[in-house]
Amino acid sequence: MSDTDPTTATDDTLRTPIVAVLGHVDHGKTSLLDKIRGSAVTAGESGAITQHIGATAVPLNVISEIAGDLVDPTDFDLPGLLFIDTPGHHSFSTLRSRGGALADIAILVVDVNDGFQPQTLEAIDILKRTQTPFIVAANKIDTVPGWNPNEGKPVQQTMDAQSDRVQSDLNEKLYEIIGELSDNGFSADMYWRVQNFQANIGVVPVSAETSEGIPDLLTVMMGLSQRYMKEEMEIDTTGPGVGTVLEVKDTQGFGTTLDAIIYDGTIRNDDTIVVGGLQGPIVTDVRALLRPRPLEEIRTEQEFEQVEQVAAADGVKIAAPDLDDAMAGAPIRVIRDRDRSEVIAEVEQELAEIEVTTQEEGVVIKADTLGSLEALSSTLEEEEIPVMRAEVGAVAPRDVRVAETAGEPTNQAILAFSVEVLDDARDLAEQEDVELFEDDVIYQLVESYDDHVTAIEEAQQ
Ligand code: GDP
């Protein structure tokens, strides 16, 4: 690995800030991440950015190359930024850890033409709840009539230089976003007018299409991390690792594996770990730690290389026995030189902190990650819809059995958020008149359930 790899540090050091990208579907999260990765590849010599499991690390020297004269690398002692690669609903899970936030900072992507949409509001709720500092990327500025491409200059300079008419077109849209932020309890302004990014949300106009504003965005991210998060980011990269499960999945040759982010300490290939599972903590021994091979090395079937250890902040695929019940969004802790029962108790405690309240009667909810389960549960609570059972994972026949006995007809329902419904569960639900609702968007899921309730109530009158 090269000296610029932010993940190879071994002493007490500042870890790479972890960045999540959130926002409404189609507002440009994936495009923005791709553009940042693409710019990093173009800017650095090949191999300068490192592809990780579930994340991309962009080192400081590459950031300063992209940002040009906006970022002087000598002003920073952070190694770079680690972007979590799974935007969209998975971000719910990636934002959790120890009842706080896994991501240190977030980018909330808002389409300038579309403004705030339901998933923007969902994201804002999560950012508030986890107290994650964030900036707003006001995306798609290239689509605003009259906008002139700016040949890579910072957007601020371009906006100042452009004609009044263009400025007012874009300004109007940007001020709508600032207004929406203020309606949601945040004080916000254009990023170049914000002095204190902790007290105020900075809005950065960008285009994931033309790359305009990306230098500005990275500059603000670096400044935000450096100024306000330094102390929290001092870590001992040799201590027992602490992380969060991003995904539980089958990997050929390794059985059920975990894609995880390690945000503190180190995980080694001979460690015993504790992982949050459906039935409580799972204690197991690491069998292998896997990372993607550099592209030029991929020839045949072996996509991954085994490594001896991975230090924070980094993504890794963990192979170990007994992971079938592990939950996305759950904590992972390395035992190593710590007391086993203490570590298990910590994981138990962390699982208990996840706020999902259930009652004796109510609907069944299933979600893909603990974080999304929590988000769905809190929406239902606000709408006073009772929940009887809440679990991570696919909808199985036993969920239908539970829903069947749920009391009121309106309760005989399963709300499935971003999870699969097993075929036998679907058949059983049809037989037993249990209603299935499936969606990848919380508000749409709850809306279709509401419509169903209204229909039942009307039929009863
Ligand atoms: P996501 O659902 O938030 O990940 O959104 P995507 O990144 O998939 O983008 C949705 C659509 O918007 C795609 O067709 C993109 O090509 C387009 N798009 C994203 N960013 C921009 C932008 O800055 N300018 C323009 N013109 N189109 C964009």
Automatic annotation (TrEMBL):
| Positions spanned in the full protein | 1 to 461 of 601
Biological source species: Haloarcula taiwanensis
Q: Does the keyword Nucleotide-binding apply?
A: yes
- Gene it is expressed from: infB
The family annotation for this protein states: Belongs to the TRAFAC class translation factor GTPase superfamily. Classic translation factor GTPase family. IF-2 subfamily.
**Which is one GO molecular function term here?**
GTPase activity
Binding residues for GTP, per the UniProt record?
23-30, 85-89, 139-142
Alphabetized UniProt keyword annotations:
GTP-binding, Initiation factor, Nucleotide-binding, Protein biosynthesis
Name of the protein: Probable translation initiation factor IF-2
Upper taxonomic lineage: Archaea, Methanobacteriati, Methanobacteriota, Stenosarchaea group, Halobacteria
Which residues are in the Tr-type G domain? 14-229
Report the protein's function: Function in general translation initiation by promoting the binding of the formylmethionine-tRNA to ribosomes. Seems to function along with eIF-2.
Q: What GO terms fall under cellular component here?
A: cytoplasm
